[in-house]
Write a structure and sequence with these properties.
heterotrimer, A mainly alpha (309), B mainly alpha (266), C alpha+beta (385), A: 309 residues, mainly alpha, two-stranded antiparallel ribbon, B: 266 residues, MetI-like fold, 11 helices, cell membrane (chain A), transmembrane (chain A), membrane (chain A)
């Protein structure tokens, strides 16, 4: 399984391969590509177009929908659902930061300090994947239960007073609050942070650490000046792999949150599957996609991963 | 001071192990609560020890049926995505062709898209085509989103492969087909296996895309989702625990076999 | 009194390294590297030379013993607190920093703000002034090597450690860099400790060479001393080539030892015998191939008296320009190697010809017979390939 996820790590920056070798049989590549690409075009690209068209339609379920270039749907859904958008972005951002803070030490541990325990820890990171994530998310209901030890401890230590003051929790409860949702999101996407981090840390030549030490860098300086910069590809793909699915998630908000923690995913799901207001749902989904693509592009540019070796 | 020094030196280890326990805590809870005998419909609070659920894992209506359906879909989706994805990966690494950039982005985009967006747009397509939602629409959707992951896994392996190996095979009188079967494919096999495993895990555990495109068909994740509203039977925890154990055993076995092979080589 | 005279020497006292798995890389070892010298640790891979170097650098903690730099004991100091810098094997240049920043790294860590002048000077010293803003992967192997040297030297270490610094370069570049490193060492006057498996490299560059084998120093001395007076079969075989003949001690006559080998007698100066030579005991007699003259058997009468001689038959000869290398079959040694300068070639010296090998007794050396006669032969051959 380790190789699975190692391979999964790098994809988040679209890559251009260095000149592949020329070969005979000029049509071969096209035949190889055709079935898979057709699949993606028909079931991934085409639906996007359908969705775009749906978002500017008007009508009703009974009378049917028509394309009327009704762009107002975008404006209306934005004005109505901006709190959910904002929540999605801020919850996802919080979960991403938490994943980075929690995941880095573990990835570092596996890469440099685990020794013969490396494989075992690796298994323990990946194995939870195989238990349905819904079951594991439900387990958080037990862990964070009102009468449970976690809430009890947080209460005794007056942590909940602080978090309630910050608006993260409500009274003596953790469940059905933003904290619970962020906690669930962090938990769910933590492996997606750890694995790319581990991959890029593991690639670092151990001699570079020695060289830094030899050149008067203390361990912390070595980390800041050598290890962390060299792990940037992992940090970038890890944060993307965490942020993107977290921003679109609605499972955690539904299972661990309340109506006050609804994210944009919840809205899209309800509009599509319950209210059956397809144009609004399509418009919301389109806005979410555009927002994420924009953020991702800016992020990749700013983090300057292409500058790294 | 020795304690402070010890702490300083092992800070990373301590922090890492704390994270690891955070990752594993829910699995522990799932396992412990598979031995619970809850009072009401929900299995969130500990009542008393019982092995009832383990003795009768399929004792809940529809659960094992949905599990079977999920497995079936996962197997077919893995097969489809692995075949299509491997072909694309080989084309990308081993051949030159036009519109390479466009192909690369088409493969990259599904991985950079929130699931709910893909789910919603695919449902729009199916509704417009008037397709009957169910097994086939789920399978189509799963192959679609697993495909990119397979391509990436296989591509990484094929790219790290020395092209001189294939040249050597041709130099030693292997034709293109033989070169592929006897050299390329065996070397790429770990990448293909990795891609297939990933596809299986993704498909089997998928909820969001399935939820949109399943109609009234119920896969295992959808069963769990539904039970979160109606009441969670203990059997869910039994299945969750069993899946975890099977996964760990599989990976351990794979690792031991791999180690033995390496030792034989050395 | 002791402390003042060792102002800048590197002193290893009883230092050893045993790993957790029980493997002992370095046996307890005493070694002093005088200040300002170019010192080489020479040996095959796995002999403990790199471990020794890493213990000086602080990258490896010794299992026993102490490391002193001048007056200061540094045994337990972490590398970033030692006035020692290393040129790593395959250089370990930071891939995310450009050449300038790589070279400036150590200065910046020590809180030095204005580094520009020093870095520029250092880059000029290694002739890379033009490349300052390039990334390491844009440079050739030789250039990367010079960056690694500059990055270490700019810190004015008390000792510069070089771990197989030329291993990744091709032969021609290696020769060039050997001279370059020697020039830099002379220019800056810093102690260099150089780890290598290449005996030619060690002999060309170093003032003092320590030959290591199996975690111990077999012999230590100047290159000429090691070559002319090897004291073990390992040194004799690892440094260049030696012909070793098993012989029996016959008598001692004054300063010389007379030995019986096959049917003949050989003379060995007592001072050049590192083994106890009692009558009736065994000794290994060694002679370097280039010290031997080859005379056709028909002319045997012309050989001056007082030289050691052995008769044999030429098995192979190979002409390599400046010299011709012969392999001679003889009763006392199956494959005697002889290198003859191509000054006046005797056309009769072809495979199959009967010949007399003869050399001055002063060039003979004697070794303890209780060692493996082939020690160091294969390792030397492998590494050179």
């Amino acid at each position: 399984m380790a190789t699975v996820t190692e391979a999964e790590a790098p994809p988040l920056a679209p890559e251009t391969d260095p000149k592949p070798p020329r070969k005979r049989g000029r049509l071969v590549p096209y035949w190889l590509l055709l079935p898979g690409l057709l699949w993606l075009v028909i079931f991934f690209a085409l639906p996007m177009i359908y969705q775009a068209s749906t978002s500017v339609q008007t009508g009703s379920l009974e009378e049917g929908y028509k394309v009327t270039w009704h762009f107002a749907t975008y404006w209306d859904s934005l004005t109505e659902y901006w709190p959910q958008f904002l929540r999605s972005v801020s919850y996802a951002a919080a979960a991403t930061v938490l994943c980075l803070l929690l995941g880095y030490p573990l990835a570092y541990l596996i890469a440099f300090r685990a020794g013969r325990w490396r494989n075992l820890i690796m298994i323990l990171v990946i194995a939870p994947f195989f238990t349905s994530f819904l079951i594991r998310t439900l387990a958080w209901k037990t862990i964070l239960a009102d009468s449970g030890p976690v809430v009890g401890a947080l209460n005794t230590l007056h942590v909940l007073d602080v978090t309630t003051w910050l608006g993260w929790t409500a009274g003596d409860r953790v469940l059905a609050t933003p904290l619970a949702v962020v906690c669930g999101l962090t938990y769910n996407f933590l492996p997606f942070m750890i694995l790319p981090l581990y991959t890029s840390l593991e690639r670092i030549d151990g001699r570079l650490h020695e060289a830094a030490g030899d050149l008067y860098a203390r361990p912390w300086t070595t980390f800041r000046k050598v290890t962390f910069p060299l792990s940037m590809p992992g940090v970038v793909s890890g944060t993307l792999l965490t942020f993107i699915p977290a921003a679109g998630d609605y499972v955690n908000a539904e299972l661990l949150g309340s109506t006050d923690t609804r994210m944009i995913g919840n809205v899209i799901q309800t509009q599509f599957l319950r209210i059956l207001d397809y144009p609004t749902a399509a418009a919301l989904s389109f806005i979410l996609m555009a927002a994420i693509l924009l953020m991702v592009t800016v992020y990749i540019r700013r983090s300057g991963t292409e500058d790294l070796v | 001071m020795p304690f402070v020094n010890w702490l300083k030196r092992h800070l990373v280890v301590i922090a890492g192990l704390l994270t690891l326990s955070y990752l594993l805590l829910p699995n522990v809870v799932v396992t412990v609560f598979s031995f619970n005998k809850p009072k009401g419909r929900f299995n969130y609070e500990w009542q008393q020890f019982s092995t009832d659920a383990w003795k009768d894992p399929c004792g809940v209506a529809d659960m094992c049926g949905s599990l079977g359906l999920s497995l079936q879909i996962a197997v077919w989706a893995t097969l489809g995505a692995t075949v299509l994805g491997t072909m694309i990966a080989f084309a990308l690494v081993r051949y030159r062709f036009r519109a390479r950039g466009a192909v690369n982005s088409l493969i990259f985009l599904p991985m950079a898209m929130p699931e709910v967006v893909m789910a919603a747009s695919l449902l729009t397509l199916f509704l417009n085509m008037g397709a009957q939602l169910g097994f086939w629409t789920i399978l189509i959707a799963h192959i679609m989103f697993c495909l990119s992951f397979v391509v990436t896994a296989v591509k990484a392996r094929v790219m790290s492969m020395d092209p001189r190996l294939e040249q050597a095979a041709q130099d030693l009188y292997a034709g293109p087909a033989q070169t592929f079967l006897r050299v390329t494919l065996p070397i790429a096999a770990p990448g293909i296996a990795a891609g297939a495993l990933l596809a299986f895990a993704l498909s089997f555990d998928d909820f969001i895309i399935t939820n949109f495109n399943a109609g009234s068909t119920v896969t295992f994740p959808m069963f769990v989702w539904g039970s979160a509203q109606r009441g969670t039977p203990v059997q869910i925890n039994v299945i969750g625990t069993a899946m975890f154990l099977v996964a760990v055993l599989f990976v351990l076995a794979g690792m031991i076999i791999g180690n033995r092979r390496n030792r034989q080589k050395a | 009194m002791m402390t003042t005279q060792t102002s800048g020497d590197v002193r290893l006292s009883g230092i050893s390294k045993t790993y957790d798995n029980g493997f002992t890389a370095v046996q307890p070892l005493d070694l002093t590297v005088p200040q300002g010298s170019f010192f080489a640790l020479l040996g095959a891979s796995g002999c403990g030379k790199t471990t020794t170097l890493r213990m000086i650098a602080g990258l490896e903690e010794p299992s026993s013993g102490t490391v002193h730099l001048g007056d200061q004991e540094v045994t337990h100091l972490p590398p970033y607190k030692r006035p020692v810098n290393t040129v790593f094997q395959s250089y370990a240049l930071f891939p995310h920093l450009d050449i300038f920043e790589n070279v400036a790294f150590g200065l910046r860590r020590r809180g030095i703000k204005s580094v520009k002048k020093q870095v520029d000077e250092m880059l000029d010293l290694v002739q890379l002034g033009e490349q300052a803003r390039k990334k390491p992967h844009q440079l050739s192997g030789g250039q990367q090597q010079r960056v690694a040297v500059a990055r270490a030297l700019i810190n004015h270490p008390k000792v510069l450690l070089l771990d197989e610094p030329l291993g990744a370069l091709d032969l021609k570049l290696r020769r060039q860099m050997q001279l370059e490193l020697k020039r830099i060492q002379t220019e800056v006057g810093i102690t260099f400790v150089h780890v290598t498996h290449d005996q030619e490299e060690a002999m060309t560059m170093a003032d003092t060479v320590a030959v290591m084998n199996g975690g111990r120093v077999e012999q230590l001395g100047s290159p000429t001393d090691l070559y002319e007076n090897p004291r073990t079969t390992f040194v004799a075989n690892f440094l260049g080539t030696s012909n070793l003949i098993e012989a029996e001690v016959d008598t001692r006559s004054g300063e010389d030892i007379v030995l019986k080998a096959g049917g003949g007698k050989l003379v060995l100066p007592g001072a050049r015998c590192s083994a106890p030579a009692q009558a009736g005991g065994k000794v290994l007699v060694g002679i370097r191939p280039e010290k031997i003259s080859l005379t056709h058997a028909d002319d045997a009468g012309e050989i001056p008296a007082g030289r050691n001689r052995i008769t044999g038959k030429i098995a192979h000869s190979s002409f390599i320009g400046v010299s011709t290398q012969y392999v001679v079959d003889s009763a006392v040694c199956p494959e005697f190697e002889v290198y003859a300068q191509n000054v006046d070639r005797d056309p009769r010296l072809v495979p199959g010809a009967d010949v007399v090998l003869h050399w001055s007794p002063a060039h003979t050396f004697g070794l303890d017979a209780a060692q493996d006669i082939d020690a160091g032969v294969e390792t030397a051959g492998e590494e050179a390939a």
